[in-house]
Fold:
Amino acid sequence: MIHRGGTAQKLRQTLLKHNVRRFLFIGHADASAPGGPRTLGFASEDGRTMTIAPNDELARMFGASAKANGGQLELVFLNGCRSE
Structure:
């Protein structure tokens, strides 16, 4: 399954709905999280860049997906501009 664009909420819903084994993110990684480090950037419905919660929220999102799908998540690859 390939998604282009979308919001963090749509990603969260997709991860919980489908048995995701491998996840590749290619996009912005220089969005500013309030009071925290740069994080992944998602597109809003009107095309503006909006951010997801800090990186620990990403970890919880993928952890919830793995738990909901019987631990099938085996690879998460995040590739974005200005990422470390």
